User: What shape does this take?
Amino acid sequence: MTLRLILAASAALVLSAPVVAVPAMTVAAQVAAVTEAEMEAKTQAFEARMAEMNKELQAALDGSGGNADKALPVIRTIPDQLRNSIQQAIANQAAN
Assistant: This one.
């Protein structure tokens, strides 16, 4: 968690710093920090979606009263929703 905070702070400093002539190594480090921060944000979003999906699955199981035939159609829709959101994210990234 401390590493995440350091990376986020580094990225904020990198983005707020004035543009000046800097050695190539510093530019590479700045790009790496921004890339790391972007990856961390994507990781957190993915983890949040997985937690949400877990809650949806648990609610489907709880709502079925232990009846698998009743729970299964609801459970099958949850991965389809995730698949659609992943395909949309890929399309959005490809457009950028």
